[in-house]
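User: Here's a chain of 664 residues. Predict its fold as tokens.
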Amino acid sequence: MTDWEDELATGTQAPGGAPDTIPGLLARNADKYGASPAYREKEFGIWQSWTWAEAAEEIEALALGFLTLGVEKGDHIAVIGRNRPYLYWTMVAAQMTGAVPVPIYQEAVGDEIAYVLDHCDARFIVAGDQEQVDKVLEVQDQLGNLTHMVYLDPRGMRKYDHAKLTRFSTLQEAGRAARTDLIGELEARRSALTGDDTCVMLYTSGTTGRPKGVVLSYHNIVETSRNSSDFDKLRAGDEILAYLPMAWVGDFIFSIGQAYWTGFCVNCPENADTMMSDLREIGPTYYFAPPRVFETLLTNVMIRMEDAGRFKKWLFRVFMDHARKVGPKLLDGQDVGLGDRLKYMLGELFVYAPLKNTLGFTRVRVGYTAGEAIGPEIFDFYRSLGINLKQLYGQTEASVFITQQADGEVRSDTVGTPTPGVELRIDDNGEVFYRSPGVFVEYYQNAESTRDTKDAEGWVATGDAGFIEESSGQLRIIDRAKDVGKMADGSMFAPKYVENKLKFYPNVLEAVVLGAGRDYCTAFINIDLTAVGNWAERNNIAYASYQELAGHQQVLDTIQSHVEEVNASVAEDEMLSGCQIRRFLVLHKELDADDGELTRTRKVRRRIIEEKYADLIAALYDGSPEVSTVTEVTYEDGRKGSIAATLQIRDAAIREVAVRMAAE
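Assistant: Prediction complete.
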């Protein structure tokens, strides 16, 4: 066995001398792992595959094509579209030329795209399909720096003016034709790259204002990828599914940073509708998803069980109760009695293994969730099945990783210990600070925000409140520092803690808890249309719209029971028992990123919601039994409209004893 074949089998890296740029790692992988799969994509129901050697050739052809367009060192090349190997190649090809890739959320609307493209002065854009091209063309009058656009999917593009439009494959052909003339220039640019050069620019989600362009160097990405990969012993034989937004830092670090460091294979699903079946076919060994994905999967499981026969329901309940008791212990290597082990083995045969296969998690060796806190009940559900799901804590400015949970030290209420190379400290006001090799270079064209976030010694303010446990050294995040406050009586207000408990229920899609500076907490709740709609169909309840179903009395009764169960759970936490929900309403529409209520990563924009729904908040606190409102909405085609509704406000029972305990 050759040295590189041994590396592929064991996942180890050659000591010292590793390349410090992504194009450098690509050259290494093409040499060492050349015949091994680097990318797969499902198209027309068939998986296409590219080895590292083939991917390197495709990327070089595209980079040469960029040179024929006049791409200069330091240019910004925007990338917008769904996860496809071609668009990952685009980012690496841009890097080869000395340019900087700037991925944009594919669901972004025209104004959002215009802001990013104008802010970063993008000269070139690579778009996935006609829809993305049209978005750019609609705002092109705001883009004085735009020189040329490249499109991948030619469907619908034949009659467009191609003076400044080029098909992706045509650009690659031009690059191959010009190889003799331009390869020297490309090699010179590639060789000149260092760890201090800009690797990528990623825009923040913008929960409190306009998104900021986070400049990350090769040193940031490569060092973080190395440290985090070593932590979890990731190896070249691993498989991941790349389905999260390419503009999100998590996808960049997993699908480019760690993939190029370790040499594992990146698999792209055919589309969002086939994602679950594609997940089952690939069977990833390394998997990441934000809490929303795990919540949705659990909702689908519970819906299926509602439709199951009596015996299957009984079997599921019996073995899942047992799994919650011993599953995490077995996963962590703790002692479990022989009888419990045998019962768990039976559960594996009849319930756990079929369920993991249905979810596509049979081969998952390392799984992570991050982005926001996950409900402990949801987290424990997956670990009880034997899925090695862990939590990490990070942000764009850290190149993702700040803390990770080590095997055998996984808990639902912490986010782990510092990733190798990361230092942590807690400020006097409880805010978490860190510094690491992954700390961003700057916010693009925003020196003031850079200074506010990162001090002269490299410490970065996370904006999150938390503390480090003395006994374990693990970090606990309470909430966003700006969201953590006090109730009128001085007790702590931490809305995310309560919201995550509510979202454990399949019927609840989103929740927004209010109460800072007030006498009690209230909440807005979004129902999950899939889960509640399934319940309605099973009970022969007709409904014509989301609004009608959300206002149904039985739905409100069910949501009230969930709220009161959460109140009972919150009451058990002495520090946060004052966060019980006394009044709530079920919103007449889903909170939507197109309406500005959520970010593109589906984080709640609290300030906007509080301003937009001020009339509803007033009614929650003035004792009104109902409230009438008119809300502006954005339709899928971009048109604006409004919906009117009269919403019932419900009172929920709270545990007064717990409140007294907190006061004592």
